[in-house]
Amino acid sequence: MSLPIVAIVGRPNVGKSTLFNRLVGQPLAIVHDAPGVTRDRHYADADLHGREISLVDTGGFDPTTDDPMGQGIARQVRAAIAEADVLLCVLDASLPPTGPDRDALQLLRKSGKPVIVAGNKVDGLRAELASAELYRLGVDQLYPISALHGRGTAELAAAIVAALPPPSAAPPPEPLAEDVARVTLLGRPNAGKSSLFNRLAGEERALVDHRPGTTRDTVDSPVHFAGRDFLVVDTAGIRRRARIDEDVEAISVMRALRSVGRADVVLVMVDAHEGLAEQDQRLLGLAAERGRAIVVGLNKFDLLGAAERRRAEQEARRALGFAPWAPLHGLSAKTGAGVGPLMKAVWEASRAYRQRIGTAELNRFFEEVLERRPPPTHQGRAPRLYYITQVSQAPPVFAVMCSHPDALKESYKRFVGNQLRERFGFTSVPLLLRFRDKRRKRHELA
């Protein structure tokens, strides 16, 4: 299921990126006192009071500017407004309201979407009293916050969640038979996504052109390839954000990101000549965060010599350090070389993504693991692992009941996960293991 989008909008230097980092829980966006640091959009998933959302940080917005750079930022912001479910307007509560503040709010209200207004830089009672000036903009409800120190952000997050459409509001994807793999193609422009899509479909369903940016919208189609059925979604090429300067392309990027939520497997196409760039890694990181299976296709592999192929694979593997389980496959979407093994890997990844292991079988495996390598003593504690069960599938999540989970070393947790992956073939899939205190559960049931 695709996640609802919340766009953070406001004029330069009001603290949008600081708030973005605060809500995401990581310092992902660059924060600097100089206005205009954020020129492009930043995307990240966040958990607000148990509700998963996609958060979009936008550049400083002045809808009336004549500056070419400012106009480019304004186009980016309008694209985010068009695709968002909730709009979060950030104002600087330490300064009187300005004309650009008024213009920005007016534009947001015209969208017809829920608008939440936060007055940032409220670091004390005096600042909170001064923030009342912002009500002159016709604001019904103002949330005074300090994004830097976290003051008021919990109440703001609760307001965002309350404004979101209910989880059931968006129609779920059409149910697919168990023998159909749902695949989303992602990657930078001109990496060969549409060429692969056409080869799988057996006809020209998607326009192929050497100029980047040809595909502007997501296109999905059922295809039958090598005796297997796939639902393949071709998406717009996702450029480095500094190159996204057209409204239509910016919107297509967000739709491509939404499509990750519809997939069993995210197939990221990479030009083998150029390798995995930062943007590719961000796409893969987003897919991994959402628990999706991942396969990487190194396209135009046939154009490389033997030494270049080895170097391309080594560099790609280093870039995938955060997801060492993701398989790499060299191919040529143009000639069809390597497409068969690639799609076999995609199929196996979709099976692993949906796989459910019985509790009895899991615990026979678990006993073998504990006999071979019991958990080490840590800080005088000897944690015991009692049993393991699969909590959910698609994506696979496991719970390990134990004593003193806080005493388990991260290296041992990784060991258990790697053993689980190897035994049951969870290739290409990020595994989530939750180590739970058995005693706590007993107390909760008492």
Write the layout of secondary structure elements.
Blueprint: E1 5-9, H1 16-24, E2 42-48, E3 51-57, H2 68-83, E4 86-92, H3 99-110, E5 115-120, H4 125-130, E6 142-144, H5 153-163, E7 180-187, H6 193-201, E8 219-225, E9 228-234, H7 247-259, E10 265-271, H8 278-289, E11 293-299, H9 306-319, E12 328-330, H10 339-354, H11 359-372, E13 385-392, E14 397-402, H12 410-424, E15 432-437, H13 438-445
Q: pLDDT under 50 segments (min length 5)?
A: 29-40, 169-176, 205-218, 240-249, 441-446
**Distinct helical segment count:** 13
Which structural class is indicated by helix and strand composition?
alpha/beta
SSE order? EHEEHEHEHEHEHEEHEHEHEHHEEHEH
N-C termini distance: 36 Å
The geometry reads as globular
Radius of gyration: 24 Å
User: Helical content, roughly?
Assistant: 25-40%
Strand content: 15-25%
Residue-averaged pLDDT: 81
Task: Work out the number of β strands.
Answer: 15
User: Biggest β-sheet: count, sense, barrel?
Assistant: 6 strands, mixed
Please give the order of strands in the largest beta sheet: 2-3-1-4-5-6
